[in-house]
Predict the structure.
Amino acid sequence: MSNSKTITLSVNGRIRSLDVPSHRTLLEALRDSGHVDIKRGCEKGDCGACAVLVDEVAIDSCLTLAWMCEGKEITTVSGLGDVENPHPLQTSFKQLGAAQCGFCTPGMVVAARSLLNDNPDPSDDEIRYALSGNLCRCTGYTKILDAVKHAALVMREEGAGQ
Ligand code: FES
Ligand code: FES
């Protein structure tokens, strides 16, 4: 008897059907289907490199079994924006020098997006707490904090202008 299951989910707005063994993580299933913008780090929930939004909330995809995401809406860092039409977080990370090795940054941006979904005007401590599950071995985090604050401001101003 096969222990595989076909699941249907939305990834960055596209409906995907994936054949997944019951033990396959969402990280493995998505990377195996081409979504390599999701980074594979520790694979045990320590680094946050693998973060994606599931129904707009950031989770570690290495700790989530793919079959649990049947019918869910998944957003990766590429789903937030692209070079032609970047998300304010992506623009701020670039402009303020917060994007460094490209390994930790996707998860940082996804975690920040999850925070700003709930809290459009977070304090420094709230940003630090929201990103506390995202590790970078190289930086002091100051530029990342500045980039999230700046993006939050831009998003509030954009919202106020609508
Ligand atoms: S790879 Fe998922 S938390 Fe590190
Ligand atoms: S800049 Fe990404 S791990 Fe240090």
